[in-house]
Specification:
It is a single chain. By secondary structure, this protein is mainly β. It has no helices and nine strands. The protein is globular and about 45 Å long.
């Protein structure tokens, strides 16, 4: 189970999106580029008393950047 949040700041790190575990334990901060995002940091959320509004992940898709084919992951 994963959750996603919008842009924000954690300590001194600014991010465009955050992918986190359902429980606030770990998160991956991402930087948005033109058509995709790249991970920039792994965050240990349990060590901080922080509230991050996050939304349930409904589905995950991946795209081949060469062929542009989009595939839904199970």
């Amino acid at each position: 189970m994963a959750r996603v949040s919008e842009s924000g700041k954690f300590r001194h790190l600014s991010y465009d999106s955050l992918i986190r575990s359902n429980k606030a334990i770990l998160a991956i901060a991402c930087k948005g580029l033109k058509s995709f995002s790249i991970p920039i940091s792994l965050l240990a959320l349990r060590q901080e008393k922080i509230h991050i509004t996050a939304y349930n992940v409904l589905e995950i898709k991946r795209q081949n950047l060469i062929t542009k084919k989009i595939e839904k992951l199970k």
